[in-house]
């Protein structure tokens, strides 16, 4: 298991996260903090970048203290994860990122 640090970007520069990534299991766990509350109809979405392309890894909400713990969806089709990001998207998620990046980190 590798541990990757994700740093906050505008519009949430204080946001922080760690991703615990298992290349063998093709799964990850995101532990985030300092996330801002989102407006109705919005959720955070986790992305794993493989071969330069984003793959949706799950949507989530932060708690009232701005924390989140989320396990990625099954990513068995990914050979190698190069980068992780969190964006703000419409509730339920999207097939490709459209909203602002609030967290990002590379392996």
Biggest β-sheet description? 8 strands, antiparallel
Instruction: Summarize the amount of helix as a percent range.
Output: under 10%
Q: How far is it from the N-terminal to the C-terminal residue, by CA?
A: 12 Å
Number of helices: 0
**Number of DSSP E strands:** 8
Low-confidence stretches: none
Give, in spatial order, the strands making up the sheet with the most strands: 5-4-7-8-1-2-3-6
| Mean of all residue-level pLDDT scores | 94
Estimated structural class? mainly beta
Radius of gyration: 12 Å
* Coarse morphology: globular
User: Strand percentage, roughly?
Assistant: over 45%
Order of helices and strands: EEEEEEEE
What's this model, at a glance?
This protein has 107 residues and is mainly β.
């Amino acid at each position: 298991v590798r541990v990757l640090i994700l740093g906050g970007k505008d519009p949430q520069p204080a946001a922080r996260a760690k991703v615990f990534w298992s290349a063998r299991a093709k799964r990850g766990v995101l532990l985030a903090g300092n996330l801002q509350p989102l407006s109705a109809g919005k959720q955070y979405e986790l992305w794993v970048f493989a071969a330069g392309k984003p793959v949706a890894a799950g949507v989530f909400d932060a708690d009232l203290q701005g924390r989140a713990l989320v396990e990625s969806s099954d990513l068995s089709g990914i050979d190698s994860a190069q980068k992780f990001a969190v964006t703000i998207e419409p509730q339920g998620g999207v097939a490709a990122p459209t909203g602002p990046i609030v967290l990002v980190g590379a392996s």
